[in-house]
UniProtKB/TrEMBL annotation, chain A:
Matches recorded under InterPro entries: Bet3, NO_sig/Golgi_transp_ligand-bd, TRAPP_component
Main location: endoplasmic reticulum
This protein's name: Trafficking protein particle complex subunit
Lineage, uppermost ranks: Eukaryota, Metazoa, Spiralia, Lophotrochozoa, Brachiopoda
Keywords carried by this UniProt record: Endoplasmic reticulum, ER-Golgi transport, Golgi apparatus, Lipoprotein, Palmitate, Transport
Organism: Lingula anatina (Brachiopod)
Subunit structure: Homodimer.
Gene3D superfamilies cross-referenced by the UniProt entry: Trafficking protein particle complex subunit 3 (3.30.1380.20)
GO terms (BP aspect): Golgi vesicle transport
Gene: LOC106153734
Highest taxon, organism lineage: Eukaryota
UniProtKB/TrEMBL annotation, chain B:
Pfam families: TRAPP
Gene Ontology cellular-component terms listed: cis-Golgi network; endoplasmic reticulum; trans-Golgi network; TRAPP complex
Domain of life: Eukaryota
Keywords tagged on the record: Endoplasmic reticulum, Golgi apparatus, Neurogenesis
Keyword Ribosomal protein included in the entry's annotation: no
Compartment(s) of residence: Endoplasmic reticulum; Golgi apparatus, cis-Golgi network
Protein family membership: Belongs to the TRAPP small subunits family. BET3 subfamily.
Protein name: Trafficking protein particle complex subunit 6B
High-level lineage: Eukaryota, Metazoa, Spiralia, Lophotrochozoa, Brachiopoda
TrEMBL record, chain C:
Name this protein carries in UniProt: Trafficking protein particle complex subunit 2-like protein
Superkingdom of the organism of origin: Eukaryota
Gene this protein is translated from: LOC106153153
Gene source species: Lingula anatina (Brachiopod)
Subcellular location: Cytoplasm, Perinuclear region
Classification via InterPro entries: Longin-like_dom_sf, Sedlin, TRAPPC2L
Record carries keyword Magnesium: no
């Protein structure tokens, strides 16, 4: 590049921002398009789900992770490998349920929400719903049906961001019905 | 810091989503919505990206910035060819456009190639707009995954 | 420490302006408004000392009896104006540059809020906090 200038950050960082800025623009647009915030949350979740079912292949190819034997292993891989690879952060796995079928991912910071300031009256917006969908879709591809939802969100003023994952059941190896 | 691949997957999903929710006779609206998203992102990216860059000398200097710095940051390579008629029309050629390489494998997505170019058109328009240049940006696929972006500067 | 901080859009209307508590806010608004002409003049001085022209920081725009007015224009043609008291001789050029840098960073972050529409008045609390930290505290 012939421009001998100091840029505001290295190009990699800018391209990382391409995703978060595009995501933000989409959320903001959906909020304008849909009167009902629940509908926005659903759309974001669905988007995430569709992304997740593709992202898992990329993840498995790049991470060389073997088959997980139980939910604890899965949780660790999600936090230490998955989140690290795609978002550059490593959430803490904690708050296991007594039966061991539910856990939380605690995020100190969420790259998706850098610079985001929720407008007044949007407390029902789950801004980062896409993450729930991605986890759900990705895990379905490895034969796990899960429910994923936000318990706490720093964007709303909570101390931390907490995503809860609940294992529902193991899926048969049949091709799962795609969600449209 | 979000991984680069996230944007590619995400872009593909939103193109699909907008196409699906557009009625059969309204493929245009999918294009318009995607273009507008690109526009907003272009405005914001350029605000961040030009924070510590010296002032641009002129229009051509700005175009070169788009073709080199901005393009590389977003699409991992520079524009391959920049032509202008020196009368406000610029043609940017990318011989292997990153957002088209995803779909150039299978023929089933070919008819949607224009929609895949909507966001990038908006990105250019938004970037230029925030740098004080009003424009109209269109794109066409020459031979997958090569494409051309045509920028028509609007002098007010 | 400033007595007035303003952000002006590329179309020259104010996006944000905050002053120290004063009965005569209008005086500051007028000062900022007047400074825009000087800003335009400075950035359109083509050919004179090409290197200087490419800096975003414009330096001292003009002094009045009681105040000094400094300017800064981003590549996106957004103007920042900072007014300080003339009597404040402790304030060095470096510090003024530092204030503009912080202001610029805060502005860029604010711009990247997906719920902020470019061109709108700035109502961001985090942004306002940064500005507050630059204004003279009593």
């Amino acid at each position: 590049m012939s421009r001998q200038t100091v840029r505001s950050g290295d190009p990699r960082k800018v391209s990382a921002e391409l995703f978060t800025l595009t995501y933000g623009a989409l959320v903001s647009q959906l909020v304008k398009d849909y009167e009902n915030v629940d509908e926005v949350n659903k759309q974001l979740d669905k988007l995430g789900y569709n992304m997740g079912i593709r992202l898992i292949e990329d993840f498995l190819a790049r991470s060389n992770v073997g088959r997980c034997h139980d939910l604890r292993e899965t949780a660790d891989v999600i936090a230490k490998v998955g989140f690290k690879m795609f978002l550059g952060i490593v959430p803490t796995v904690s708050n296991w349920s007594p039966s061991g079928d539910e856990f939380s991912l605690l995020l100190d910071n969420n790259p998706l929400t850098d610079f985001v300031e929720l407008p007044e009256g949007q407390s029902n917006l789950e801004y980062s719903s896409i993450l729930c969908g991605v986890l759900r879709g990705a895990l379905e591809m490895v034969q796990m049906e899960v429910n994923v939802w936000f318990v706490q969100d720093q964007l709303k003023g909570d101390n931390t961001t907490e995503i809860r994952v609940k294992f529902i059941r193991r899926l048969e190896d049949a091709v799962p019905v795609g969600e449209d | 810091m979000a991984d680069e691949v996230l944007f590619e997957f995400f872009h593909m999903e939103i193109v699909g989503q907008f196409l699906q929710s557009a009625r059969k006779d309204e493929k245009e609206s999918a294009f318009t919505k995607l273009e507008f998203l690109g526009y907003r992102v272009g405005q914001r990216l350029v605000e961040r990206f030009t924070k510590e860059v010296p002032r641009f000398k002129d229009e051509l200097d700005t175009m070169k910035f788009i073709c080199k710095d901005l393009w590389t940051s977003c699409y991992k390579k520079q524009i391959d060819n920049l032509r202008t008629n020196h009368q406000g029309v610029y043609v940017l050629q990318d011989n292997k456009f990153r957002l088209l390489t995803q779909i150039s494998e299978g023929k089933q997505y070919m008819e949607y190639a224009p929609q895949f170019l909507a966001f990038p058109c908006g990105l250019i328009r938004g970037a230029l707009s925030n740098l004080g240049i009003a424009s109209n940006v269109t794109a066409e696929v020459s031979a997958m995954p090569a494409c051309k972006f045509q920028i028509q500067i609007q002098r007010l | 420490m400033a007595v007035c901080v303003a952000v002006i859009s590329k179309e020259n209307f104010p996006l944000f302006i905050k002053t120290i508590p004063t009965e005569n806010e209008l005086k500051f608004f007028y000062t900022v408004h007047t400074s825009l002409d000087v800003v335009e003049e400075k950035i359109s001085n083509v050919g004179k000392n090409v290197n200087d022209m490419r800096e975003l920081y414009l330096g001292l725009l003009y002094p009045t009896e009681d105040y000094k007015v400094y300017g800064y224009v981003t590549n996106t043609k957004v103007k920042f104006v900072i007014v300080v008291e003339s009597s404040n001789t402790n304030l060095r050029d470096n510090e003024i540059r530092g204030m503009f840098r912080r202001l610029h960073n805060a502005y860029v972050d604010m711009m990247c809020n997906p719920f902020y529409t470019p061109g709108e008045n700035i109502s961001s609390k985090p942004f306002e906090r940064i500005v507050d930290s630059m204004l003279v505290q009593d």
